[in-house]
Amino acid sequence: MSWIREGELSLLERFCASIIKAGPMPKHIAFIMDGNRRYAQKHKVKKLEGHSQGFAKLAQTLQWCLSLGVREVTVYAFSIENFKRPREEVDGLMQLAREKFTRLLEEQENLEKHGVCVRILGDLPLLPRDIQELIAKVVLATKQYNTCFLNIAFAYTSREEISNAVKELAWGVEEGLLQPSDVSESLIDKCLYSSKSPHPDILIRTSGEVRLSDFMLWQTSHSCLVFQPVLWPEYSFWNLWEAILQFQMNYSALQKARDLYLEERKWQQMETDKACILEKLKEEGSASCADAQRRRTLLQELRANREERVQGFLEALENKRMDFLEKLTVASA
Predict the structure, then answer these.
(1) Which listed residue, 57, 104, 190, 295, has the most CB atoms within 10 A of its CB?
(2) Contact present, 5 and 62 (Cβ < 8 Å)
(3) Surface-to-core class of residue 273, CB atoms within 10 Å of its CB (0-12 exposed, 13-18 middle, 19+ buried)
(4) 286-316 burial string, b = 16+ CB within 10 Å, else e?
(5) How far, in Å, CA of 306 to CA of 296, rounded?
(6) For residues 2 and 207, what is the distance between their CA atoms, to the nearest angstrom?
(7) Distance of CA 121 to the CA centre of its chain
(8) Are 68 and 17 in contact (CB under 8 A)?
């Protein structure tokens, strides 16, 4: 089955879509696709069939999102914790992944038509080598597309993602690319697997569970969290429509919270910079007599130097990540 299904919305769906699109629309929706195993139990089929039906629903949901103008979707496909499941189920999921990532590679024309850039979020070395190679090929083959974005969290947990970001920062300091004082909340954000994406406007979890299960904990602090009782393979356009409606009803409060947070972060950085300048002036023995112009000049130099270091570090980090993927594709050639 194709990852991006072709097809039009029904007349009623198109009508309701036009109504909801009159309000503020989410740019990025994240899904915890929960309920595949319960769906299998409910319909008395094998667990792997439940997961297969879940993939079919993902393909349909992506088509709905495209029709609604949602440019970015992130899905929780496989948690690091899932490796603890029975061996038969894990092996089945890995085989399903092989099939679906292979299918993605075969869909270049369709992906190019819709401009779909595929990104994988997760600790790839935990996966079987052949799946790592498939993922690398998919990511590199679609990296130039920029109409819409599909992020697949695979071998992922949020705590591992944050831990990895801290390790990347430590690497930057060890390599002399960063100074310890450059490390900030903003820079951690840029080292996450999801650094190229805006934070989700909505996070949807199906199956009635009301927890995040270690998914995008950092990114969803100001997202609209929607918990729906429907099992993922039974998800419908109307469930998505309802989630977007909830987002619109809470849009003003969410936007206000985001703006306040950004202002607070900006203010904290400014205060930190001022403290650094005062410390420098004290070391020079000129803190008491330094005029305002001198302080402004030092502040500008501090920010310019930090920005230069940070940009150099981020470029080096991106090159390191791309090199890892390119080596995987060479190894599989």
Answers:
(1) 104
(2) yes
(3) middle
(4) eeeebeeeebeebeeebeeebeebbeebbeb
(5) 15
(6) 24
(7) 7
(8) yes
Q: pLDDT higher for 331 or 287?
A: 331
Q: Residue 216: which pLDDT band, with cuts at 50, 70 and 90?
A: very high
- Supply the pTM of this predicted model: 0.94
One-letter identity of residue 179: Q
Which tens digit of pLDDT belongs to each residue from 242-257? 999 999 999 999 999 9
Tens of pLDDT along 167-194?
Answer: 999 999 999 999 999 999 999 999 999 9
* Number of residues written out for the chain: 333
Longest CA span, the chain: 81
Dihedral through CA 314, CA 319, CA 324, CA 329, nearest 10?
Answer: 140
Q: β-pairing, 72-79 with 148-156?
A: parallel
